[in-house]
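Forum > Structural Biology > Help requests

Title: Can anyone predict the 3D structure of Endonuclease/exonuclease/phosphatase family protein?

Hi all, first post here. I have the sequence for Endonuclease/exonuclease/phosphatase family protein but no way to get a structure on my laptop. I'd be grateful if someone could post the structure tokens.
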Amino acid sequence: MVWYTDLRNRKFFSESEADWTSRRLLELRAQLASPPPKGVPRRTKDSSIIIGTWNIRDFDNNKFRHGPRRRESLHYIAEVLSAFDVCALQEVNEDLGPLKDVIRLMGPGWDFIATDVTTGASGNRERMCFVYDSRKVRFRNIVGEIVLPKHALLPGEQQFARTPFMVSFQAGWFKFSLCTVHIYFGETSKGSDGYARRVSEIDYIAREMADRAERENENYILLGDFNIKNPVDETMSALTKAGFQLPPEQYPSNLLGTHYYDQIAFRTLKDELTFLSSGVFDWSQTVFHADHYEHYAPVLPARHRDLKPDGRPRDTGKDKEYYSKRWLTWQMSDHLPLWVELAIDFSDAHLLHNVKGEFERGDVPAQVEFTEEEAPVESPPEPAEPVRPLKKKRKAPKVAAPEKQGTLAPTRKMSFAEGWRIFWWVAMGGGDRMRKAKEAGKKAAKPRKAKKTKG
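Reply #1:
Sure, ran it for you. Structure tokens for Endonuclease/exonuclease/phosphatase family protein below:
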């Protein structure tokens, strides 16, 4: 549970700002509590786990001077992260102070694991991080960064632009390794070197994690920012052809709702993945909404605005666009957090594995138990001799209804016809039409001010 005590500290929040932030937090909590996919399922103690991934834009060195993030923004980020049991973060910067502030706000029990910064022009000195609830998710003492061997180096003998990061965890019965990535973007055209590098990075990390899953007999989950534009792009096939499965429904994860940059993919042991639900959380419906422009206009950075000498914007429309399309992305992000919910309590299945139907047709006496000194070395104890013929048979056990129940296969293979329909829809501008319709719907939902009549 997030701590809200800072809201009563007048060094941090005035009464007016504490009121504003508390109202936003209440609305954010109500949105999180909504049924999926709009909201996020309520976390359970031991029956399921919610795994998230979030590119949390340039957190938080303010090198582009649109910030730094406000204290209220850290509260909103903490609220969203606390809805997950473990969440992979991309674009965490060198200074871990802001992340530690968020962890403090999330309350006791929360912890994080971070990489060193990735150097080089494409690395941007970014870190990969996992934030997790240590009361629910246990770190299994295995952690490492994935580097390319010499034979697999990218053109020009290049490594990954940002080094993938793998950590092993356990929650309940479920042992799993998470590998988070932030794949190189580069140019968008398919014939470009940058696009080829993006595909190569995804192809290698997917094949490497698939090989490890096979070799180690381990559950692997590959997640993060893959910079995948749409479900039928070559970048997506580079991920799935290695045997990684995706949730049944895909969600766009950029703020405009047009691209499928972020993904969570599975390569797991047979019968050890019970998929429950998935979604993307659109925090922009609640915090830093377009309707909040007037509240924030006085504190927007002047260096990025065209202002008159009296401080008012020359073009209010352009100023609102800066607020809603740029400034707020450095307060929260230009990405939305993606999540999946998996069942992790295999207790009944483990016990049912020992139940044999043959003993429901006839019973045998209780097993003889020996002391340690008397116990046979190579064979288990034999059943006792019955005192009289046994009449009662063993009954089938009663099994409690599962608290969370899902499907064993998280996805099915996409048919050629389905893939072609999606490709044609994207190629014909379906994504742009959907975005414009969404924006038109938001405008239509705004209450219109009644015109004053001369009387």
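The first strand starts at residue 48 and ends at 59. The chain has a mean pLDDT of 87.
Shout if anything looks off.
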